[in-house]
Structures are given as C-alpha cells and as structure tokens.
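Final report, closing paragraph on structural work. Over the funding period we assembled a curated collection of sequence-structure pairs, and we close with a single example.
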Amino acid sequence: MKKVFCFLAACVILPAAGFSQKLNTLSSKEKKQGWTLLFDGTSTNGWTTTGGKPVPAGWEVKDGILTVKKGAKGGDIITAGEYSDFDFSIDYNITPGCNSGIKYFFTKYEKGGNLGMEYQILDDALAEDNKLENHRTGSFYDVMPPNDDAKKTNPPGQWNTVRIVSKGKKVEHWLNGKKILEFTRGDQAYTAAVAKSKFAKAEPAFGTVEKGHILLQDHGGEVSFRNIKIKTL
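Its predicted structure, as stored:
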C-alpha cells in the first residue's frame, strides 16, 4: 500500500515539475499573445552600446543570466529596436548597496543629450541614493515616487520581476505582480513633476518623445537580468 501511495504521489508531482517554464523562453500562450524575447539566454544578440557598438566584456552571459559585473566598465546597453506602445517584462537581481535602472523611450534629445525615462532599481536599505522617494526602487527616477503601500521588493540576492506598460500617453510601473505607479505623459501632474526634476530643461519636453530604445543601466554595481521580453501594443 505504501508503494502504491508513493507511486501516485510521484505521478502528481513530476508532471507539475515538467510544466515549469524554462528561463528565457516563451510559453505557447505568450507566443500567441505576441510576446518577443529580447534576450536568448546565450548571447547579447539584439543589444548594443548606446553608441551602436558590440556589447563590451563587462557584460557576462552565463547559465541563462545576463550580468553587468561590478566595476567592469560594461557601460549601458540598449535594444537594437525602438518601441512606443509596449508591455515589457524583466527579472532582476542585485547585490547589496546596488544602484541600477531600466530606461525606456531612450533617445537623443535636441537639448539634454541621450535621455530615457528610468524605472529605478535600488537597494532601498543600503544604497547611497535612497534618501528621496522618487529615487527608490520602482520610481520614475527623479520625477515620481512609487506607491510604497503596494510595493513588495525582494532583497538583494533574490529575483524581482519588473513590468513596464506604455499605451499612448499612459504608463504603468509594476513590481512582482503589483502596480506601484501610473501616470500620463504630458498631463498637468506629469509636467509639474518634470519641472522639479533634473530633466526640466530637456527639449522636447522630457518623456514626450514618441518612441525609443530599452536600456539596461551600468551604474557601477553588479546586477543580473533574465527573462527579458516585450509585446507591442
């Protein structure tokens, strides 16, 4: 009887394990929905430096994970393509004290240089730049803070899942399945917040461009990424 019970238990457990999705792959449902992988798990194909050059050795691909090594001068990297209306998802894992970010609508402005709207990634407890609400994880960096009541961040050494949704002028920041910030580009609240930020003098107005690249930031600390995917809307 005991052997029969063990066999039946194995029949229940093993199929469930078999259905767990592998890293850097799309499920059949995601493919039908129009998702596209931006990281194949084995190379940096589809990514360049902000100057259009190959990704430097400071970025390492190992065991299905893309990592910018601490102090390795990997530099920021961007997608080859540009995006406007999109649903973007990525997993990240940082080391203690780390500061990083994901920029979107990254492009060259007439005044202000190369700029992008940044979803801030930070060790909120230990990083130096943790004093301002709009500099902490999930914020629209230096412009708008996240909803801390909704935000649940896993600590350094554990994975977190970011989602950024842009449709028309509306933008949403998500973290680990919870929406933590939403705003409308160009409305009164947005314009007032940008006017108080370090991007106030950008031309055209910061964040009002129609399209741009996705950027993964090298801010000197070690940060890893995986499961990078996007769906155009």
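The helical segments are 2-18, 28-33, 188-195. Confidence is low (pLDDT under 50) at residues 2-18. We thank the funder for supporting this effort.
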